[in-house]
Write a structure and sequence with these properties.
Number of helices: 23
Helix content: 40-55%
Low-confidence stretches: 632-638, 679-690
C-alpha cells in the first residue's frame, strides 16, 4: 500500500511541532500526530499509540484516532511477547510487524471475532525507539482490507514513530522530574514537620521531667537548662544561659570539679558520671549526674550534655534497706531453723547460715532457679517443683515435705513452708520461707504407722485364729444340748471341745510367753547343753507338721561336738519354731534342711527351705513382733506373727544372734541362729464323703470345710435340725460330687488350702445345675472387706465363726 497522493503535509506537521515547542499538553500533541498519520495512510485506517507499562510485559493504549469505543476498550491492554499479537511482538522484538491479512495469521486467532465485528483485515505495528535504543511502545494501524505498506510509506511512518518516540521520552522525563520534585517537597515537608514535632516533644519532656537536663558549650557555659533546673537555681532561662557554674553560684570546689569533668569528656569523647550534694531552692539534696559528649559531623565534640537526678530519697532508702537487711540476716542466722527468701517469680535469692551448714555447701551456692535439682531427692524433685510453680503463679501459701541431701550424704526429710509478702496494692514482692528438719519425726511416724498396721493385721489374725476353735466348740455344745442322752455323741463332741480348747490354750500361752520374754520376765535355766540333742528333739516335735506337708527333712549335724551354755527347753522352742515356720511356708512336697556346724567358737543352727521365700521389703522386719507374710484367705501362711519374735528374743538372751536370707518370692529362705560355743499345716486326711441318701430332708446341704472337727460338729447340728448333710473335707472333690448329686445349699469354709472358698464358690456357680442353690460363707474373717469379698464371689450369706445356730437355721428356712 502506498501513501495518499498528497503524502506528508509538512504544514500539518509544522503546526504539531510548534505546539510541542510551546509546551502544549502531551495528549493533545499525540492526538494531532495520530490524525496526521491517519491522513497519510487514508481515513479508512485507524491509528493507536501503545506505551509499555511497568512491569514491561504489557502495552496500554495512550491515544487513538478513528477507533470505535468498543474496539478501543477491548484492545486497551495488550500482552508483550514473541508469541503475542502484532503489537506485543513488535514491542518485544523492536522490529516492525505487518499482518497483511488477520485471517491468515495463527497468532491472531483469539482476536478474529473482534476483527470481524469491526471490519478489520490487516494490522501494522511499528516500534517506538528512544534515542538510546530503548523500546517505548508501538504505533499500530488497523485497515478494513488486506494490505501492507510499501517502502516509501513505511519510511514516512518511521518518521512519525521517531517523532512520537522523542516526544514520549521527553514526556516521561518530565513526569519523572515532576514526581521526584513532588517527592522531595513531600520529604522536606515531612522532615520539617518531624523536626518541629521532635522539638515540641523534647521540650515538653525536658520541661516536665523531674531530672535536671542541660547543655554546656566548649567554654563550659550553659546553652540550655530545663524548667526544673531553672527552678532549683531560682533563675529564669535568660538569666542562666551563657553563664558558667561558678557564675551561677556554685561553690568554687563544685564548679572546678565540673570544669575538670567537662574537659575530660572533651578529651576522651566518653561519658563521665558522679554524685554530689548541692544546696539550692530545694534545700540540701544529693544528686547523681552524667555528662556525655555531643559529636559533630566531623566526629569532634561540639558540646557536652548532662542530666542530673535527685537521689536523696533513694540513698536514704538504700541506707535503711542495708540496715534492715543486716538486721534480717542477723535474726535469721540466730534462728535454729533454715530460713530462705525468693523473688516474686520464685527465684531463690537467700539462704541463712544454718541452711548452708545443713547441706555442707559454701554460702551463696544454692541460690537461683535450679537449686532443687541438685539438693532434692530425685523422687521428690518434680513434685516439689510443680507445687512451688503452682504457689508462685497463684500466690497460695507453700507447704511441702520432701527429702533434701544432708552434708553427711544421706537424704533427710524436711518440712518447707513459705508465705508471700505483699505490697499495699496486693502484689507479691517477696517470699519468706523456712525449712525444718523433721527426719526423726518422719521416721517415727512411719514406724508408728507400720506398727499400727502390724497391730491391725495381728488383731485380725488373732480374731480368725480364735474364731476357728470357737466354731466347733459352739457347734459341739449345740449338739450336746440336742442329744444329751447319747453317750457316743457326748464322748465324741467332748473330745472335739477338748481338742479345740487345747488349741486355744496354745494360742493364749504363745501370747503370754512372748509377753513375758519381751518384758524380760523369763529366767533361763542355763546348763551345758548338747545342741545336737536339741535339734533332734525339735525335729521330733515338729515331725507331724512336716509329715502332714509331705516335706522331706534333711538333718546335717556334722561330727564335731556342739555344746553351749543355755536353757535346753528354750533352745528346743527356738529350733522347733524355725522348723514349723519352714513347714508352713513351703508348699506340699518341699525340702527342708536342718544343719548344725561349729566354727570359730560359734555354734550355728540353720533351717533352709525351698518354699515361698520372703520379699525384700519384709526381710529387715521379719523378726519384729506381729510381722508375717501377706495374709491370704486359705491361712496357709497364717499364725500370729509371734514365733520369729520369740526366736530373736530367746537367742538374744543366750548372747547369740539371728539371721535370715532369701532371694525373693518363690525362692525359699534360710534362717540361722548363732550361739557362743561352751511350716504349712498338715493336710488332713480326707474322709470318704457321704451321700444324701433317700431319707426325707428339710434341706439337702453340702458342707465343705477342711477342719474335721468343725465340719463334723456343724454337720451334726444341721442333721439334728432335720437337714441332710454331705460333708466334704477336700475342696477339690466338691465340684464333681455336687454335679453328681446337686444340693440345695452350699456351706463353704473360706480359709481352705489348695482351693479357697471364694474360688470354689465361683466354680460351683458357673455350673447351670448348681447356679440356683443357696451359697453360705462360713469363715473366721468378719471385717467389712471380708463380707464384700464374699459378696463378689457369689455368696448369698456370710457367717462368722462361731456361727449362731439360730441364725444359720433361720437362713436355711428361708430357702
Amino acid at each position: 500500500m502506498k501513501s495518499t497522493a498528497a503524502g506528508l503535509k509538512f504544514d500539518g506537521l509544522k503546526h504539531v511541532l510548534s505546539d510541542a515547542v510551546r509546551g502544549a499538553p502531551y495528549d493533545v500533541i499525540l492526538q494531532s500526530l495520530l490524525d496526521e498519520a491517519r491522513r497519510l495512510i487514508g481515513q479508512q485506517a485507524w491509528a493507536a499509540l501503545y506505551l509499555l507499562a511497568a512491569p514491561a510485559d504489557r502495552l496500554h493504549m495512550a491515544a487513538s484516532a478513528g477507533l470505535p469505543a468498543a474496539f478501543a476498550e477491548a484492545l486497551a491492554l495488550l500482552p508483550v511477547g514473541p508469541e503475542e499479537a502484532s503489537c506485543g511482538r513488535a514491542a518485544h522484538s523492536g522490529q516492525v510487524v505487518v499482518v497483511e491479512d488477520v485471517l491468515a495469521e495463527p497468532l491472531l486467532q483469539p482476536y478474529l471475532p473482534l476483527a470481524a465485528q469491526h471490519g478489520v483485515r490487516s494490522c501494522w505495528s511499528f516500534p517506538l525507539h528512544s534515542p538510546g535504543g530503548r523500546v517505548l511502545g508501538t504505533l499500530a494501524f488497523f485497515h478494513p482490507a488486506p494490505n501492507a505498506p510499501d517502502a516509501a510509506l513505511a519510511g514516512e511512518i518511521g518518521y512519525f514513530t521517531d517523532l512520537l518516540a522523542l516526544l514520549t521520552e521527553r514526556h516521561l522525563r518530565e513526569q519523572e522530574n515532576a514526581a521526584r520534585h513532588a517527592a522531595a517537597e513531600r520529604e522536606l515537608a515531612a522532615m520539617s514537620e518531624e523536626s518541629e514535632r521532635r522539638r515540641r516533644l523534647y521540650e515538653t519532656v525536658l520541661s516536665n521531667s523531674p531530672d535536671l537536663a542541660y547543655v554546656f558549650d566548649l567554654e563550659h557555659r550553659f546553652t540550655y537548662a530545663n524548667a526544673v533546673l531553672l527552678q532549683m537555681w531560682g533563675r529564669t532561662f535568660e538569666e542562666s544561659v551563657g553563664k558558667t557554674c561558678l557564675e551561677l553560684g556554685y561553690e568554687p570546689w563544685h564548679a572546678a570539679m565540673h570544669d575538670r569533668e567537662i574537659e575530660q569528656v572533651k578529651a576522651t569523647k566518653a561519658p563521665i558520671r558522679g554524685e554530689v550534694p548541692f544546696n539550692g531552692t530545694f534545700g540540701r539534696r544529693i544528686y547523681d549526674y552524667i555528662f556525655v559528649p555531643i559529636l559533630g559531623p566531623d566526629g569532634e565534640v561540639e558540646a557536652v550534655a548532662g542530666t542530673t537526678r535527685d537521689v536523696t530519697e533513694r540513698k536514704r532508702f538504700e541506707e535503711e534497706l542495708r540496715d534492715s537487711e543486716l538486721r534480717f540476716r542477723t535474726i535469721t542466722n540466730a534462728s535454729p531453723q533454715m530460713v530462705w527468701t525468693a523473688l516474686p517469680d520464685g527465684t531463690i535469692d537467700y539462704h541463712n547460715d544454718q541452711f548452708y551448714r545443713y547441706i555442707g555447701l559454701p554460702p551463696g551456692a544454692a541460690e537461683g532457679r535450679t537449686w532443687a535439682e541438685d539438693m532434692l531427692h530425685p523422687e521428690d524433685q518434680e513434685r516439689a517443683r510443680a507445687r512451688w510453680a503452682h504457689c508462685v503463679a497463684s500466690g497460695d501459701a507453700y507447704e511441702m515435705t520432701y527429702r533434701t541431701r544432708h552434708h553427711s550424704g544421706e537424704y533427710r526429710w524436711i518440712l518447707a513452708r513459705a508465705l508471700p509478702l505483699r505490697s499495699e496494692n496486693g502484689e507479691i514482692v517477696k517470699w519468706l520461707g523456712t525449712d525444718t528438719d523433721i527426719h526423726e519425726a518422719k521416721l517415727n511416724e512411719e514406724a508408728l504407722q507400720e506398727a499400727n498396721h502390724r497391730k491391725d493385721e495381728f488383731l485380725a489374725m488373732l480374731a480368725h485364729e480364735l474364731r476357728n476353735p470357737l466354731a466347733p466348740i459352739s457347734a459341739a455344745a449345740q449338739v450336746l444340748r440336742l442329744a444329751p442322752n447319747n453317750p457316743d455323741k457326748v464322748r465324741q463332741y467332748s473330745e472335739v471341745i477338748s481338742r479345740q480348747v487345747s488349741h486355744m490354750t496354745t494360742l493364749v500361752n504363745d501370747l503370754l510367753d512372748v509377753s513375758r520374754v519381751t518384758r524380760g520376765m523369763v529366767q533361763l535355766e542355763k546348763a551345758p547343753v548338747d545342741v545336737k540333742s536339741v535339734v533332734t528333739s525339735a525335729a521330733e516335735q515338729v515331725h507331724p507338721l512336716i509329715e502332714g506337708g509331705r516335706h522331706t527333712l534333711v538333718l546335717q549335724l556334722g561330727s564335731a561336738p556342739a555344746g553351749v551354755l543355755g536353757d535346753r527347753a528354750r533352745l528346743i522352742q527356738v529350733t522347733a519354731n524355725l522348723l514349723a515356720n519352714a513347714a508352713k511356708y513351703t508348699p506340699p512336697g518341699g525340702r527342708i534342711t536342718l544343719s548344725l556346724e561349729v566354727r570359730d567358737g560359734t555354734v550355728r543352727i540353720a533351717v533352709a527351705d525351698n518354699g515361698s521365700g520372703i520379699e525384700a521389703g519384709l526381710l529387715p522386719h521379719i523378726f519384729d513382733l506381729f510381722v508375717q507374710g501377706k495374709r491370704t484367705p486359705d491361712r496357709a501362711q497364717g499364725g500370729l506373727g509371734l514365733g520369729l519374735a520369740l526366736v530373736k528374743n530367746i537367742v538374744g538372751m543366750h548372747g547369740g544372734q539371728v539371721g535370715v536370707h532369701s532371694d525373693g518370692h518363690g525362692k525359699g529362705s534360710c534362717f540361722s541362729v548363732e550361739l557362743p560355743a561352751a511350716g504349712q499345716l498338715p493336710h488332713p486326711a480326707a474322709q470318704a464323703p457321704a451321700t444324701f441318701g433317700s431319707a426325707a430332708c428339710a434341706r439337702r446341704i453340702m458342707l465343705v470345710d477342711d477342719n474335721l472337727d468343725a465340719a463334723a460338729t456343724l454337720a451334726a447340728l444341721l442333721e439334728a435340725a432335720g437337714h441332710c448333710v454331705r460333708t466334704v473335707n477336700d475342696p477339690r472333690e466338691a465340684l464333681a460330687l455336687a454335679l453328681a448329686d446337686p444340693p440345695e445349699v452350699f456351706i463353704l469354709d473360706i480359709g481352705m488350702p489348695l482351693i479357697d472358698g471364694h474360688t470354689l464358690a465361683r466354680q460351683l456357680r458357673a455350673q447351670p445345675a448348681l447356679a440356683g442353690a443357696l451359697y453360705v460363707a462360713l469363715t473366721g474373717y468378719g471385717q467389712s472387706s471380708d463380707r464384700e469379698s464374699s459378696r463378689q464371689a457369689g455368696f448369698d450369706r456370710h457367717f462368722v465363726k462361731p456361727v449362731e445356730a439360730a441364725r444359720l437355721l433361720a437362713a436355711l428356712a428361708e430357702v
